[in-house]
Amino acid sequence: AYQRKLCELISVTVRAIVTECVADAAKNAPGGGDDANPVVSKGTMAGVAHMSLDQFFDCINMLFEQVLGLLWGAFAVNKFCIDEGFILDDNAPVSSSGNADMEIQ
Asked: What angle do CA 16, 33, 42 make, to 5 degrees?
């Protein structure tokens, strides 16, 4: 369950950052700033394709920083669980309360 939630969080983070970068790039483009910008209305892929190289690298840098932060957080949770003797199994049967059973050694 934690792995699935982490993947969902990473996906939402990437989507939000790329959307923000595309909007900023469109706003800063010549003739940008209006809501009728054709690049934004075509979608995210067109927006990324129209970014300058500096804007693209800034977006990639922000993506790596955020995803790396999420992964370091997951690493810390995993290390804590190992140190404390928790074994979390995403394939464990779900109890009647809706939570996966957690085995403690």
From this structure: 55
